[in-house]
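== Folding the chain ==

***
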Amino acid sequence: MAGVVLGMVDEQIRFRAILTLIWNGSSTACIVVLDRTSHRLHTANLGDSGFLVVRGGEVVHRSDEQQHYFNTPFQLSIAPPEAEGVVLSDR
């Protein structure tokens, strides 16, 4: 039993350590969820990632690209401290 408890404690310590890590980087994102009960499509899109809705071989909807200007998409990001003031933002 003591081994099981210690294993759980070790796992919790590792989990908390992972939560405190901060990784520098950025990403665009596209999340699409189909609610099978209501037959509704829910979407969240950021940047130049995107999605198409196709019915009967026809494109009936296309997400809009979101970018500051060509080849500079909106992104979710954590910039390194030394990049403060250099990072592109809308505000």
